[in-house]
Amino acid sequence: MGPASAGAATADTALRAQGLSFSRGGRRVFEGVGFELHAGQLLQVLGANGSGKTSLLRVLGGLLPADEGELCWGGEPVRSGEPEFLQAVAYLGHANGIDADLSAAENLRFAARMAGVDDSPARVTDALRAMGLDPASRAPVRTLSQGQRRRVALARLALLRRTLWLLDEPVSSLDAASGERFFAQLADHLRQGGMAVVATHELLPGASQTLQLQG
After folding, report:
1. pLDDT digits (tens, 9 = 90+) for 94-105
2. In angstroms, what CA-CA distances link 133 with 94, 141, 155?
3. What's the whole-model pTM score?
4. Domain 14-98+163-212 maps to which CATH number in 3.20.20.120, 3.40.1190.10, 3.40.50.300, 3.40.640.10?
């Protein structure tokens, strides 16, 4: 994977959250969340189902508004729909966000074109190979297993070159070998100055910080 370029961070860029709170249907999902994440760092977000992990990721990605608190990127407050911040973020939720009518390779090429990055066959092939998807690269996604579909979504991360990864249970549906491939990809992203916030039920290798949500 090449260096982060879309929405690339400067040396002092950080994601900073202070006093974030969020409610749904009159119920407080989480409150008082704060952290600061710098280049090369991984924040793991732990908590039981319903503790607010997914909601927090969506708030951090600008997909949901916080009730209270402040979110800053590179020292500047993040505003809803701000292009510079959105171009720095890759969000992967429980849904894979891929088109079942396209092949794995076609999904990656489409995502790269939409992001304005190199969609050459060589880059697409490298991204799929890194996730062990060479044999299935031309098959329609609808014919793939749930684990293979998840790997297509994870392979897309290698193409988009976004600085900040927001990932919700990224290894769900993956076997042990595929999980190891993803962790290698994540480690490479961090070594190159990327950042990641990962919601998970399990402790992650190489995590710089841990945030425990109580629910």
Report:
1. 999 999 999 999
2. 20, 11, 9
3. 0.90
4. 3.40.50.300
